[in-house]
Design brief:
Helix content is 35%, strand content 20%. It is α/β, with parallel strands linked by helices. Bound molecules: adenosine-5'-diphosphate (ADP) and zinc ion.
Length: 291
């Protein structure tokens, strides 16, 4: 029995097929163009492998309300070709198998919770910091949905007193993504993050914004672990800086056995950037079980 997994991103679509023991059978990446250009190749890939179910972790925002007429659609994305595209419908019609569907970052949270450092941790927040910033939340062992899905990249953060950079989010004046995403780093410092490794001031400021966000997630969601992934988090020197800034910002207020142990509270993704596709696999397995 094979399960398909699709990590649908704004720049590429990663397709994979797993057997029931989570062994990877086949994987292929496709560039994200328009739906008309991109979707047929993906369908062909999964048809060839005769998958019994498919899990999709998708860029958003997406409609996850099963009672909604537009369940399974990508909604208000800035990628106009994909706006109001029926992602679940496209695969359901073509493959005729159960489809699991969630955000890409909820997928990563589920991947870490099922296969990675978050195993056995029933309350966790996964944060991705790359082209955008997003969070996935496991609450009492289940992905948090509510009205749609968390949009934790757009929480409002107060700007650092010495930061005169203008937030780049088109919607907000001072949000986490607009101040601390990869493109924000590039615009503020005039170079891509990967070319700024040795510049301590870049990462001190970045760590401070990430720590503020982690404090806010901690205050609201009371997680037992915070997992960080995405391109920017390849700067491993950030981890001790974030932990130190978190302790300083928390100022001794939230005390529990998780927050009191920052080295094990604030951790790096553990699946070598495979957490997203593994999470999509789990979404597919769950869809098969729940059909
Ligand atoms: P995406 O979010 O598009 O899926 P990534 O998570 O790789 O992809 O994020 C890309 C962003 O992360 C870019 O803005 C890039 O400059 C930044 N980035 C990628 N690698 C690094 C790195 N090693 N150090 C710092 N920033 C990085
Ligand atoms: Zn914003």
């Amino acid at each position: 029995m094979y399960t398909g997994a699709l990590e649908a991103g704004g720049t590429k679509m990663v397709c994979a097929v797993f057997d029931e023991k989570a062994n990877l059978i086949k994987e292929k990446s496709f560039p994200t163009k328009t739906p008309d250009e991109t979707i047929p190749g993906l369908i062909e890939f999964f048809k060839d492998e005769k998958v019994d179910a498919l899990g999709i972790g998708c860029f958003g925002p997406i409609d996850l309300d099963k009672s909604s007429d537009t369940y399974g659609y990508i909604t208000s994305t800035p990628k106009t070709a994909w706006r109001n595209f029926n992602m679940v419908g496209a695969f359901k019609d073509a493959l005729g198998v159960p489809i699991g569907f969630d955000t890409d970052v909820n997928g990563s949270a589920l991947g870490e919770h099922t296969f990675g450092i978050g195993r056995g941790v029933d309350n966790l927040v996964y944060i991705t910091i790359g082209t955008g910033i997003g969070i996935g939340v496991i609450n009492d062992g289940k992905l948090l949905h509510g009205g749609m899905h968390p949009e934790g990249g757009h929480i409002m953060l107060t700007k650092h007193s010495k930061d005169d950079f203008e937030c780049i989010c088109p919607y907000h004046k001072s949000c986490f993504e607009g101040l601390a995403s990869g493109p924000a780093i590039e615009k503020r410092w005039g170079k891509k993050g990967q070319e700024l490794s040795g510049r301590d001031e870049v990462w001190q400021l970045e760590a401070d914004y990430i720590a503020k966000a982690i404090f806010n997630y901690t205050a609201v969601l009371s997680p037992q672990m915070i997992i960080l992934g995405g391109g920017v988090m390849h700067q491993k020197q950030l981890f001790p800086m974030i932990r130190e800034a978190f302790v300083k910002r928390n100022n001794g207020y939230i005390r529990n056995r998780y927050t009191d142990d920052p080295d094990n509270y604030i951790v790096c993704q553990s699946l070598d950037d495979k957490q997203g596709i593994l999470g999509a696999f789990r979404l597919g397995m769950d869809a098969l079980e729940g059909q």
